[in-house]
Design brief:
The complex is a heterodimer of chains A (482) and B (264). With 482 residues, chain A is of the alpha+beta class. Chain A has 2 domains: 185 residues, no CATH class; 236 residues, MetI-like (MetI-like fold, Orthogonal Bundle), CATH 1.10.3720. Chain A has 15 helices and 11 strands. In chain A, helix 10 packs antiparallel against helix 11 and helix 14 runs antiparallel to helix 15. The two termini of chain A are 32 Å apart. Chain B has a 6-stranded mixed beta sheet, with helices on both faces. Chain B has a 3-stranded antiparallel beta sheet with strand order 2-1-4, covered by helices on one side. In chain B, helix 3 packs parallel to helix 6. The chains are: A alpha+beta (482), B alpha/beta (264). At the A-B interface, helix 10 and helix 11 of A face helix 2, helix 3 and helix 6 of B. The complex binds adenosine-5'-triphosphate (ATP) and magnesium ion. The site of adenosine-5'-triphosphate has 12 residues of chain B, from strand 2 and helix 1.
Chain lengths: 482, 264
Amino acid sequence: MTSLVYASGGVIVGIILAIAYYLTHESTYAFDRKFDFGYRFALQPIKGEFEDLDIDPNATLLTANREGMDELDEKEEGVPFPTIESLAGVAKFGTGSPQASTLSNAIPEETFKDHWKGMKRADRSTKFLLFGFATPEYKDPKMALAWSPDAAFDPNLTPFDLKLKLVQSPAGVKTDPIEIDLRKQKTGRIELPTFVARTDEDRQKGYVFELVATPTMSHNVAVLAGTMRSEWDGTLAYPRFGIVPLIVGTLILTIIAVLIATPFSIGAAVYLSEIAPNRVREWLKPLVELLASVPTVVLGYFGLMLLAPFLGNTLAAAVGLESGRALLTAAIMMAVLLFPTITSFAEDALQAVPQSMRDGGEALGLTAREKLKKIILPAAKGGIISAVILGIARAIGETMIVWILSGGTPFLPSFASPKDAVANLMKPMKGVPDAIAIEMGNVDFEGVHYGHLFLLGLVLFIITLAINTIGQRMAKKVAWRS
Amino acid sequence: MIHTNGSPTATETPVVIDVNGLSVYYSEKQALKGISAKIHDNKVTTLIGPSGCGKSTFLRTLNRMNDRIPGFRIEGDIKISGKNPYGKGTDLLALRRNVGMVFQKPNPFPMTIYENIALGPKMHYGIKGKQLDDAVEQALREAALWEEVKDDYKKKNGLNLSGGQQQRLCIARMLAVRPEIILMDEPCSALDPISTAKVEELIKQLAGDHTLLVVTHNLQQAERISDYTAFFMFGELVEHGHSATIFGEPSHQSTQDYVSGRFG
Ligand SMILES: Nc1ncnc2c1ncn2[C@@H]1O[C@H](COP(=O)(O)OP(=O)(O)OP(=O)(O)O)[C@@H](O)[C@H]1O
Ligand SMILES: [Mg+2]
């Protein structure tokens, strides 16, 4: 018998350790995080076309980390350095980037390509060369080099310094040295004397620029800084895994839900325990407990069908937003979920206040209200706090309701104006558990996105653990001994 | 059948509680059967009798502690200080001010010792500040608890006292409301002998200017502390009279059996 107890204890401890190990281990994938930078460069006529370089067909992209592209076959990746002939009648300029990062190693026939590189660790620097020339069709004595970040790439978020330097000018052309800090000048255009390549050999004799990416921090610092950011979007070409908005979302949602549910729950618990006649109580309490077992997906569905349209047409419309799937909607349905849980436990706590204490109040002449306020509620305080904390723990881990009702966009509150502060309530949000549930299905199981999802799980676990521990302490501190 | 042989006569101290033909029912169950008794001012009356005979019911009926029990109903007549506590327009607050109660299990409230005691006077007399502090201190002194708690009674939770101290706290809390009549339902049964002695001492002191009704299963205690004793059995008041008579020469065989330990 005792050995059975030890065995099951051992199994439980083992499982906990395994989970802890698994969580920490898998979340190390988050620390494999590779960073990306992507810039587009294009030579353009002096009267600019294609302000948006993302749609300029002749722009060259110099980038590290296009996730998923690094495994392409070498040949497929290769983008040949355009020949004068191939450009004739199609484009007035040509640019190209040799795979080699030194001028002397750049062989035009073999190694030119767009840089679809694998991801870079944040502590490795990289250098790209960029050749550029005009074809004989271009007559203007001046041309322009334009640059801009690739779509969705934000230079502010990269742990690299990005510098563009002129390393070679065409023979006979005098230019001032050019060195541009791309983090300070994210987009720009500089004018240059036109260099026309008349033969294929000429292509390399014109302007050559160098893009240098120098790390600004250690890899782990960069990962942590990235993790603490305010953006979460794993679907971007340059994905962002800032977990803050998800955690903030979950916490705010939980706080609102608990704030809504607690007064009702305590009220209901007091009614059930102290006011309701026995017969009513016998019916009502099981009913409340039954409510607690309604599947959350059903609550989510009700919220979607009834509450979301209602809030969408009223409150959301009032603050200039469209959708009813938002923080408040999820919080209200979450409160519906919490209500029976908190009520039931709080009622138990009230019931546990001994009759002798109530008798004492009665004998002293306290009215029912005073008895409740001065004796019963204080005596049940520990239990009621535990009930609320159980509710908090439940709300933090709840997935389905948030998934269905929250709108699924990571959320950071804004308090710029009173209207903004109210509008926060009707903004869509995304929480930790639902993010894990939704995104876990389509990630690479040894990838960075997966690692971050696990990191989120770990954070969730720690938060719940902390809240439970604090709750237990508080409950103990105010508990009365019988 | 009502037996009141040896019942005190009117030549003694005035009657404060006058019960006439009191029957108490819990739904169908009759817990008290036509009790009649006169309780005298500034005396200690102990209620004795086997378990379930209705002692607590009698006590709790006097200050209407049973009102909330479903199915509770009384017949007959009670007069406390001349007033019927069950009469129309009874001021329950005044009744509780007049009749204090101490229970078997110490039941301090989950608050400081000071607050425990201050609750009653604040509510009944609306006093505050220095006056309230004095009332609390006086109650603690009267309950012989002052010396033990004077250092931290404003901070210490009443629940953190020992059982005996808790019971004296409950007595202090009751005394702070200045009742004339004090009901005690087995006040010592949860206490150790030393605490019991302290409470007994207290009961004797209080008898000077209070009317006390004390339920006890401890016959020696009943003999020690009381002027009068009432013996209950099966919901009936079998015998009520001077303690000396009840414990010496009771007029009923069942009383004789009970006090000599042959019953119970
Ligand atoms: N709340 C109640 N509901 C129903 N019946 C009750 C209730 N309280 C007491 N009774 C019954 O009334 C009778 C008298 O009970 P009471 O508690 O007055 O006895 P007692 O003399 O105080 O006994 P003890 O010495 O064990 O405390 C008992 O038969 C008991 O079962
Ligand atoms: Mg009793």
